[in-house]
Design a protein that fits this description.
The complex is a heterodimer of chains A (299) and B (146). Chain A has 299 residues and is of the alpha/beta class. Chain A is 32% helix and 19% strand. In chain A, the strands form two sheets. In chain A, strands 1, 2, 5, 6, 7, 8, 9, 10 and 11 form a nine-stranded mixed beta sheet that branches. A two-stranded antiparallel sheet of chain A has the order 3-4. Chain B is of the alpha+beta class. In chain B, strand 3 and strand 4 form a beta hairpin. The chains are: A alpha/beta (299), B alpha+beta (146).
Chain lengths: 299, 146
């Protein structure tokens, strides 16, 4: 005889696991941690290799050294993290009862990245069964991003820049973790292929209710040091085209320069590389006009 | 998840949990009326799926630790973390056997595990952490993976 089952809610008493409550507390921790962060901005692209991390690090360094307030960079590219290297942020990560401290990078930028946690040259690996890893890998990666948001003592920041991995879906995941996301900056290179990929990513951002703050065109020509001119690198004008199509500002174009210049457009001299390593990175340079436009878009 | 004793139409009470191996999650329940006991065995994939969310099946008995998911699951560099606070005075001592056992925990997660055991002992007025205390804490706090 089939038992006359009651429903889950008919059977009184708490669900011991309380999984939904646990997830709710995780979200609350993210919200509480970011309460003193004025703006959270995602730097995204639909395409890899366009220089998102370069733009993120350059913007962060420029804003921080202008004295516009404290700046943080969260490297959400867990598989190919580069932000720590670009900003010369080095561990170990100090952990206390209230969370992990971000590592201070160039210009005082507060950085957190999987790069700080992985052994040199080693890929991101999880302590889990190898089989069927596609089932849980995405969940674990989102969990790691959540912990980077909630468990790092970011403190009071004017802006927290989040360097996203390539692809359209990551921005929606971030939005679910940070409902108060200020907006996104899209990075492209001039080519038509990049324009098409970034267009998809921007549409996905719109679907997720994320405001496009502007577009940055990277590798926008080759700045020839010998003849003081800029020559095209890729055919196309993806930056301007995307900005027009989505009614957002073209924040700037960044030409490729063969070597880091000694000073930016306003004549500021970059600090000399620290002597700790001969191969240390110099923070990427972004044009001052781009920084102005970015700050304007935030206001 | 709730378990109902069909014969008694009574909600069964949780008794204990364990991770017996291969990623299986086990939990035992008892009917408070007739005493019938059952065990739930969740297969490793189901367990993995749920725990990937950073939640604990069977409920949390310990506050979430900073970067808990990352420190437990990522294969990271040995020197990735250091304690921001110096251990306060009055913390329990570690027996040589317990220290040796702690030494077998990967360094990536060792600081977190050490802190959990130390707080467990301090809260209970235990002066020395031994392997027995560690086993007791694992059982009570649901630290099967540590």
């Amino acid at each position: 005889m089939t038992p006359d089952f009651r429903t889950y809610h008919d059977v009184t008493g708490d669900d011991r696991s309380g999984l939904l409550e646990q997830v709710g507390r995780q979200r609350e921790r993210v919200r509480a941690r970011l309460a003193d962060v004025s703006r959270v901005v995602a730097v995204m692209s639909g395409k890899g290799g366009v220089g998102k991390s370069h733009v993120t690090a350059g913007l962060a360094y420029a804003v921080a050294t202008r004295g516009e307030g404290a700046v943080g960079v969260l490297d959400a590219d867990l598989q190919a993290p580069t932000a720590a290297r670009l900003l010369d942020a080095r561990g170990p990560v100090r952990v206390g009862d209230d969370g992990a401290e971000p590592v201070m990078g160039a210009g005082g930028v507060r950085v957190f990245s999987m790069d700080l946690l992985l052994a040199e040259g080693q890929p991101l690996r999880w302590r889990e069964p190898e089989s069927e890893r596609f089932v849980w890998r995405g969940t674990l990666e989102t969990g790691a991003l959540r912990e980077f948001l909630s468990d790092v003592r970011w403190g009071a920041l004017e802006v927290l820049l989040i360097d996203l991995p390539p692809g359209a879906a990551h921005l929606a995941d971030l939005k679910s973790l940070v409902p108060a996301l200020t907006g996104a900056v899209a990075v492209t290179i001039p080519s038509e292929e990049s324009r098409r990929a970034v267009e998809r990513a921007i549409r996905a951002a719109g679907d997720a209710g994320i405001r496009l703050l502007g577009v940055v065109e990277n590798l926008s020509g080759y700045a020839c040091a010998g003849c003081d001119s800029t020559q095209p690198l890729f055919p196309g004008d993806a930056g301007a085209s995307l900005a027009r199509a989505f009614g957002a500002p073209l924040l700037g174009r960044i030409p490729f320069t063969p070597a880091p210049p000694p000073a930016d457009e306003s004549g500021r001299v970059w600090p000399p590389p620290p002597a700790r390593s001969a191969a240390v990175a110099v923070p990427p340079v972004v044009p001052s006009s781009l920084v102005d436009a970015f700050l304007e878009a935030l206001s | 998840m709730k378990f109902l004793c069909v014969d008694c139409d009574e909600r069964m009470h949780f008794e204990e949990r364990d991770v017996p191996g291969d990623g299986t999650f086990a939990a035992a329940f008892t009917c408070p009326r007739c005493g019938r006991r059952i065990a739930l065995l969740a297969n490793p994939m189901e367990t993995q799926l749920v725990e990937s969310l950073g939640v604990q099946i069977g409920g949390r008995r310990l506050d979430e630790q900073p970067l808990e998911l990352v420190r437990q699951r990522v294969v990271g560099r040995e020197d990735a973390f250091e304690d921001a606070e110096r251990p306060p005075r009055g913390r329990p001592a570690w027996s040589p056997e317990a220290r040796e056992r702690l030494g077998r925990v990967p360094n990536f997660v060792r600081g977190m595990v050490q802190k959990i055991y130390a707080e467990y002992a301090a809260e209970r007025g235990i002066a020395e952490i031994t392997p027995g205390v560690m086993d007791q804490a694992r059982q009570e706090l649901g630290l099967e993976g540590m």
